[in-house]
Amino acid sequence: MSGFTDQAGRPVIAITGSGVVSSLGNGKKDNWARLTNGESGIHAIKRFPSDHLRTTMAGTVDFMTPVDAGSTALTFALAEAAAVEAIAESGFKIGDFGGPLFLAAPPVELEWWQRLDLDGDGGENGVNEPGYERILHAARNRAHEEFFRSAQFATIGSKLRERLGTRGLPITLSTACASGATAIQLGVEAIRRGETERVIAVATDGSVTAEALVRFSLLSALSTQNEAPEKASKPFSKDRDGFVMAEGAAAFVMESLESARARGATVLGILEGCGECADDFHRTRSKPDGSPAIAAVRAALDDAGVSTDDIDYVNAHGTSTPENDKMEYLSLSAVFGEKMKSVPISSNKSMIGHTLTAAGAIEAVFSLMTIRSGTLPPTINHVTPDPAIELDVVPNTKRDATVNRVLSNSFGFGGQNTCLVIAAEPA
Amino acid sequence: MKAPVANDVVITGIGLVSSLGEGADANWKALTNFAGPVLERERFAPYTVHPLPEVDWSQQIAKRDQRQMEAWQRIGTYAAGLALEDAGIKDDEALCASMDMIVAAGGGERDTAVDTMILNRIADGVPDREVLINEVLTTELRPTLFLAQLSNLLAGNISIVHKVTGSSRTFMGEEGAGISALQTTIARIRSGQSTHALVGGAYNAEHPDMLLGYELGHHLHRDAWMPVWQRDRCEGGGVITGSGGVFLVLESRARAERRGVPVYALLGNVAADQGPLDATKTHHRLSQMADEADIGSVDVIISAASGSHARTSAERSFLSDNLTDIPFRGISTATGHLRDAQFPLAVAVAALALRHGSTPAPFDPEIERPAERAPTSVGVIALGYNAGEGMVRVSRAEGDGS
After folding, report:
1. Is the N or C terminus of chain B more exposed, i.e. has fewer CB atoms within 10 Å?
2. Keywords of this protein's UniProt record, alphabetized (chain A) (predicted)?
3. What backbone torsions phi and psi does residue B280 show, to the nearest 5 degrees?
4. Where are the alpha helices (DSSP H) in B326-389?
């Protein structure tokens, strides 16, 4: 084993650039200041009317695109900002990155304003009955290139490819709320296979719409504590009642440590390991014994070649749903044993909400910043701890700590479980 | 011919549902005796689609699970079950639990009744459209419909129904999703990151919202049906879609040999790219990919061409300029375009041709030529109707005894 290969003889993966946007701001500096200060980005929704909705708050990002630009435009703008920040930091050239793109992006479809626009168009063209026939009539009678692009799943990846100058066919992926972690994992695997010296992994989500809120509400997944939006996301608290939808994006530039050293790049940290395991129990609930999440945590530790003793801090998935937080506690306790009580663990979602597709990557960036700054971001809104969850959740206030290695968890609907191990640059 | 290597990637299972029938054998029979496509011309006029055949879902999916899915997920979960069965893995709990999976997917079906209700009420006049939409969606949407629409829930359903849980990843992006899914799966197995995997996708063409996705860009063919190579002088954009699902079981040669199962074919690495759509640059990319995927000397090409005018004509020029003497078959003529599952479909047909040692007679005798010899290697080419390109060489796996 040389310094450039890991315990399994594979290239060590250096993180040399990172970028983030969330409801707390654009860029790492603002995000980290506000996150460690325990500020919440959750607010009452202003982008669209929330009448009739059971949940009327979210962590929307309202400062990137005009209100009427639509989800696809926002999702792209978020991805672009995070990716540009990451590439700029890495020292590679924006517009000529030269490595593959792994993009976690939310599923797309036409939005209601677009359907109404088409239906109105069809009506003016002499089709009397509102509905899909009229919409299709409108579609074939006039070109709708922008609408077309906004509803193609490949669009955001294609636009990013052009903007960043990535190589090959971009991979766009979804593993629900684990997507961001999966994008990073795919990048790690590509470097380990020796296909490329560098990759950019981006995860983005600008998909908070009324329909999306209704859909999650119908599954009883969202908090309805609308009176005080900034207090609604309370992972690991007894009175938690669901997650808060949110938007954001994050990106990592990763490369082989050898390549990073050769070009004199600053190594921000090491992406040591990734682990995953699918759950076959239920579409939204986890297997009661937590075995898939346990397997994913263990797989990540094994992949990194480390043990639970080596983990200084856990960046929780911590969604603030009754189910997730209980299962996450159960799974971590099974892997770490008694010791879990003394390993600090906090949930960024208490401040930025659940950024869904982007969450795994945003939290990986925050994990890296935790290591680099020696500051544990808090779990805010921790007023009434859940007595069934015995964890040190870094309640309410940030804490100084020496952190060499972080475990970051991502779990999602459809049985998705992906965990990452991120470590400090080797001495 | 290169000597067999333990980490060679081979196909050991094919699950296939298309308008031509259910199962790999039925589809192969229909392709080798191709007399014309199965079409639905009325329901979505002026658009033609290749409809789903009669399928007894209960053969692969328990009733309670069927109720949680719409057509797209059912087709995919069914085809995945067929592939696992074909590979002899279906009832092997340990093999399924350690099996990796990449699914190529778009989104699921919307509730057209609810959408139409909203459009009608808004057309009648309401003070605030957005408030009305909130009200109707909140009261009318079925709670579980969202799970039938989420892109990664086809994979989720396959985990639940077939217990495939080693890993679960969903790739998106129309044809590119299917191309990348195979590319990544093959690369992972060849490098030892994975030993066996399920890869594929499904598409339900019989839904107005799915047609709309293409038609906003004027991609759909609107004239009488024509073979995929002959649509450029017709009304519309050239794409005729088809319902169907395709899953493949891939594994390392070493594992397949250890299991003692027959091998359909050996897979090369997938070459994939994307870029500007102008003729010169497209031609340049395709030439490079053909070199990279080593398909210059194959016996036959299975083309995933969509019929989309500009893209299909770019592919025709490439075939006639660069692969001049190689016969080709446009699979969409027979099955329609399966979008995310289109590249896996073409790979499945290539594998079947190798297993049976024959190339189907031309689907379009005006354009396609008969093949002169039994194929030992097949090139698969896919140009996405809007973006994305992929190629792969599929060849006879020597020493497989098949």
Report:
1. N
2. Transferase
3. -65, -50
4. 332-335, 342-356
Measured between alpha carbons, how far is A273 from A8 in angstroms, rounded to an integer? 11
Q: Which helix (H) or strand (E) holds A334?
A: helix A322-336
Contact yes or no for A44/A60 (Cβ under 8 A): no
Cis ω before A378 (30° cut-off from 0): no
Give me the DSSP letters along B214-258: HHTTT-BB-SS---GGG-TTSSB-SB-EE-EEEEEEEEEHHHHHH
ipTM here: 0.98
Neighbours of B6 (CB within 10 A): 11
Contact B116 A132 (CB under 8 A): yes
* CATH C-level class of A13-108+152-423: alpha beta
Of A140, A149, A219, which is closest to B215 when you measure between CB atoms? Answer: A140
- How far away is chain A from the Cα of B190, in angstroms, using its nearest Cα? 9
Q: Which two tokens stand for residue A2?
A: 């040389």
Of residues A177, A274, A277, A419, which has the active-site annotation?
A177
Residue B392 main-chain phi, psi, to 5 deg: -155, 150
- Min Cα distance B184 → chain A (Å) is 9
Q: In sequence order, what are the residues at sequence separation of 6 or more whose Cβ sits closer than 8 angstroms to the Cβ of residue B172?
A: A105, A107, A153, A154, A172, A173, A174, B104, B105, B106, B151, B340
Q: What is the pLDDT of residues B334-386, one digit of tens each?
A: 999 999 999 999 999 999 999 999 999 999 999 999 999 999 999 999 999 99
Q: Which ranges in B39-174 belong to alpha helices (H)?
A: 63-66, 71-86, 93-97, 112-124, 129-140, 145-149, 153-162
Contact A109 B110 (CB under 8 A): yes
pLDDT in tens, B141-185: 999 999 999 999 999 999 999 999 999 999 999 999 999 999 999
3-state SS, residue A211: helix
Q: Which of A144, A274, A277, A317 is catalytic?
A: A317
Question: Could you give all domains of chain B from N- to C-terminal order, each with its CATH number?
Answer: 9-108+150-395 (3.40.47.10)
